[in-house]
């Protein structure tokens, strides 16, 4: 094992990699309960999704560790999860069964891209500013959902939205969780979200706002309600609406993984001079395979978690730390009874603060260039206001192409962007 993972060459050890793997898992563990809770709002069976989430995280991370030998944890992404539930299923009224087929389709396309030279073409085609705007926009969208679920922001006939009842005990519980997680983040805790959710659950049970679970450990629930549904409904994805959905799944998953790959690779010395990452192709393959597997099991796109940097911070340098994460995901299958205590009051603070972290990309956008600032602004602002990540992307990309043409820079626009612009126009025309 030491020889396979090159412990000596990487100047690491079994103990260091194990501790790093445990650290990474703890920073990601909130996803095990947050993902099923969100998908339940789209009508999906929560317990089956829990199993699918744990298994896809385990398999994806094990592939990442053993095949790609990269210290990175995988699990269904929070942004992708929110898009699936709130934009696709609730906003566009698409059945979750069909949406899962869209996830599978995006995973297959991602797999083809990762196995060929297409990945470089796509990375170069999308302007960096728009990638940053998409990430920040998703952050605002997730935060808005969290604020709504917490009851801090509510519907208002006069102004569309307004401040909720801050004396409501459930709202106060969410605010408590928000404060705890924020303080822990400020104090530099790598597992702030996990601890904050746990503290919120405990306080909720003390004040009778959350029921005490009847058990903690049990055999994993059945995955029968979701297993294979994506394959059974694959024929329903061939329409303009689902094409936009699949593109959005693919875009978010691909660039989430690529960005995390560079971030982790640069920290452990695997970033090459040409900007590529050592074993990067294998890492992308691991991610795409995990998405395909996860969709068949019954969960959303499995993607690389930037929380993996917490493991790197305590010494992760090889794929063995990922193996540890994968094993811990498998063990977590036996803790499904804890799903009963993960209410919206518990998950809302996590959504809000994950969203705030994603908004950090705003500072990297070139706001002094109108063709960039206007299209980036449309991308960011329209995601929460239209309640759709896909439509925010469509407006932003379309406006970028139009503004660049009138700027006299039509030749600088990548052909892929022109193709996407035409597809978005068709989508808006027939939606």
UniProtKB/TrEMBL annotation:
It is found in: Cell membrane. Coiled coil: none annotated. Belongs to the nucleobase:cation symporter-2 (NCS2) (TC 2.A.40) family. Azg-like subfamily. Keywords: Cell membrane, Membrane, Transmembrane, Transmembrane helix, Transport. It holds the Pfam family Xan_ur_permease. Its main location: membrane. The chain crosses the membrane at residues 20-42, 48-67, 74-94, 100-118, 130-154, 166-184, 191-210, 242-264, 327-354, 374-406, 413-430. The keyword Transport applies. InterPro entries: Azg-like, Azg-like_bact_archaea, NCS2. It is a multi-pass membrane protein. The lineage of its organism: Bacteria, Bacillati, Bacillota, Clostridia, Eubacteriales. This is NCS2 family permease.
């Amino acid at each position: 094992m030491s020889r396979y993972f090159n412990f000596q060459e990487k100047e690491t050890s079994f103990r260091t990699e194990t501790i790093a793997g445990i650290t990474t898992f703890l920073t990601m563990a909130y996803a095990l309960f947050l993902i099923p809770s969100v998908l339940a709002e789209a009508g999906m069976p929560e317990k089956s999704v829990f199993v699918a989430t744990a298994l896809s995280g385990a398999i994806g991370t094990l592939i990442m560790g053993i095949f790609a030998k990269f210290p990175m944890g995988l699990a269904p992404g929070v942004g992708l999860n929110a898009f699936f539930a709130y934009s696709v299923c609730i906003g566009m009224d698409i059945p979750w069964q069909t949406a899962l087929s869209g996830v599978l389709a995006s995973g297959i396309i991602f797999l083809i891209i990762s196995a060929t030279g297409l990945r470089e073409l796509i990375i170069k085609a999308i302007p960096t500013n728009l990638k940053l705007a998409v990430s920040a926009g998703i952050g605002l969208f997730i935060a808005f959902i969290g604020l709504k679920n917490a009851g801090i922001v509510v519907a208002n006939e006069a102004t569309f939205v307004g401040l909720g009842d801050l004396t409501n005990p459930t709202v106060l519980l969410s605010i408590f969780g928000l404060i705890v997680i924020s303080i822990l983040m400020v104090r530099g805790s790598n597992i702030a979200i996990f601890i904050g959710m746990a503290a919120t659950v405990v306080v909720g049970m003390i004040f009778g706002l959350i029921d005490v679970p009847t058990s903690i450990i049990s055999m994993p629930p059945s995955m029968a309600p979701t297993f294979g549904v994506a394959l059974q409904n694959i024929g329903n994805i061939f329409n303009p609406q689902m094409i936009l959905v699949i593109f959005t799944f693919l875009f978010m998953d691909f660039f989430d993984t690529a960005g995390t790959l560079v971030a982790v690779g640069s920290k452990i010395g695997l970033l090459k001079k040409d900007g590529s990452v050592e074993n990067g192709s294998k890492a992308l393959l691991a991610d795409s395979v995990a998405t395909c597997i996860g969709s068949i099991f019954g969960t959303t796109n499995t993607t690389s978690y930037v929380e993996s940097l917490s493991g790197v911070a305590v010494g992760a340098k090889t794929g063995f730390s990922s193996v540890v994460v994968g094993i811990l995901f498998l063990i977590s299958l036996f803790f499904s009874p804890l799903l009963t205590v993960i209410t919206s009051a518990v998950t809302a603070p996590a959504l809000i603060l994950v969203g705030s972290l994603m908004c950090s990309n705003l500072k990297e956008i070139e706001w002094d260039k109108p063709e960039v600032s206007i299209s980036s602004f449309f991308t960011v602002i329209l995601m929460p206001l239209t309640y759709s990540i896909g439509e925010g992307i469509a407006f932003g990309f379309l406006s970028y192409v139009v503004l660049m043409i009138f700027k006299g820079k039509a030749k600088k626009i990548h052909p892929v962007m022109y193709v996407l612009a035409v597809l978005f126009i068709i989508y808006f025309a027939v939606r």
